[in-house]
Amino acid sequence: MEDNQLQKMIRLLRLRVTVNFFKMCVLKDMHLAGKPQAPNMFDTLNIGDEKILTKRGWEKWFDGSVKKLQGESGKLLDELAKEKIVLKSEDDAGLGKLPEGFFQEMSNGGLVSKLLKSTNSTNVKKLLIDKAQEYSPASFLHLHIDAIEVNAITKDFHDVPWNEVLEIASRRILEILFKDWGPRYGQIYSSFSSSLKLQWDSADEEERDKISEFYSKFGSFLFEGKMQDGAEPDWQRIGVDNDVAPQHVYKTLFAMAADTDFLVADRLEAWTISLATAALAMHALAWSDRYTTMGVYVTEEMVFWSALDHIMFDCDTDEVDFYRLRSAMARCQAEWDEGSLDVFMSARSIYHDGLLKYGISIQDVLNLIKTAKSEHPLVYRG
After folding, report:
1. pLDDT digits (tens, 9 = 90+) for 135-177
2. Is the pLDDT of residue 313 over 90?
3. Which of 115, 170, 186, 304 is buried deepest, with most CB atoms within 10 A?
4. How many helices (H) and strands (E) does the chain have?
5. Could you tell me if 263 and 355 lie in one domain?
6. In this structure, are 183 and 153 located in the same domain?
7. How far is residue 329's CA from residue 300's CA, in Å, rounded to a whole number?
8. Quick check: 194 and 225 in contact, CB under 8 A?
9. Residues 104, 120 share a domain
10. What is the chain's alpha carbon radius of gyration, rounded to the nearest angstrom?
11. DSSP one-letter string for 106-137
């Protein structure tokens, strides 16, 4: 694939996700993926046909005639987000705002663009490693787009071979995921809704009375404590050791499907996109050393990629086949049950539906993630 064509595909994917995500935040249930809905947007935002952002300009972002957010237009989306977009409903204690530069970064580039920025350094590989370590995405969605784009790295950068650039970038994505999901110090667990809060929110008045009566025996402190945010999987049930390596976080996330009680509500949503991101990152890392990890002999990477590819990226079926997963499941120490397959089915549905809401399809993702494999295939000569 020509480099110009590849870059156009990446820019277009980023733009589509950006404008659809922005519109989804503004219009919520009225959002129609891939449609500009300019009248609804401008009415809801309560802005006129401004010079910086016109209805025609907004519509161009949807028809593909503009490839990315430019200058003041990109800044305006982030300014509007500060005023109009909140992360929580008014029923919650606090109203959260999106991070600074959220939409500009989503559209104009994340990890790869930062790594491959022009440089005069005499030690380019060290510079790439340092830049990768400094990178922190604005959201799980940003990181997921990074993971898609990383799989399209096919060119050397100065004196650093393409596969080393690929390794540096993909390792960083796995490290970021591990920082959130790792079994010892994972940072995401404290943000999840507690099991008691989920039970309380879904209960009717009679059920709430029963819950209150039960906890009244122990004093209000126990009820209040269990209502606070925070939830972790049953580490013994999923069979993950505390000393698991960051580059194997994809195994941790895969094994988490054994704890079907944990993977519900907000936890299921966050886990799904992280599982897909981990799959893409581990695929990129494996392809950076393809003759070792994806060559003649069956490796852990081959087994888990086969399973994760089937769950998340298989376009040929709407079902998740247990027999396609059993080799990967057997390599985990998890206590699997029938519900685990349902969790994987839910993840597949959530992921595919989510992509469509962002104005892209699973095929758009596949067109990019096969790039490195197409440009640098396994070649054996007799």
Report:
1. 999 999 999 999 999 999 999 999 999 999 999 999 999 999 9
2. yes
3. 170
4. 21, 0
5. yes
6. yes
7. 11
8. no
9. no
10. 22
11. HHH-SHHHHHTS----S-HHHHHHHHHHH---
Please say which residue of 57, 83, 109 terminates a domain: 109
Q: Any residues with CB less than 8 A from the CB of 151 and at least 6 apart, and which?
A: 280, 283, 284, 287, 368, 369, 370, 371, 372
The reply to whether 233 and 174 lie within a common domain is yes
Domain of residue 172 covers 116-193+229-376
Sign of CA dihedral 261, 267, 273, 276: negative
CA 87 to chain CA centroid, nearest Å: 17
The reported pLDDT for the residue numbered 89 is 45
pLDDT of the residue at 290: 93
Contact present, 186 and 218 (Cβ < 8 Å): no
Residue at token pair 């340092």: 130
- Residue-wise pLDDT for 226-275, tens only, equals 678 789 999 999 999 888 999 999 999 999 999 999 999 999 999 999 99
**Residues 316 and 212 sit within 8 Å (Cβ to Cβ):** no
| 268: number of Cβ within 10 Å | 15
In whole angstroms, give the CA distance from residue 50 to residue 22. Answer: 18
**By the 8 A CB rule, do 185 and 249 touch?**
no
Residue with tokens 């985990």: 332
- The answer as to whether 140 is a domain residue is yes
Length of the chain: 382
C-alpha to C-alpha distances, 269 to 5, 14, 141, 272, 349, nearest whole angstrom: 33, 21, 11, 5, 11
DSSP 93: S
SS3 for 160? Answer: strand
Tokens of 274: 């992280």
User: What's the CA gap between 296 and 293, in Å, rounded?
Assistant: 9
Task: Decide: helix, strand or coil at residue 157.
Answer: strand
Using alpha carbons, list the distances in angstroms from residue 328 to 16, 52, 254, 267.
34, 51, 9, 22
Same domain, 350 and 267: yes
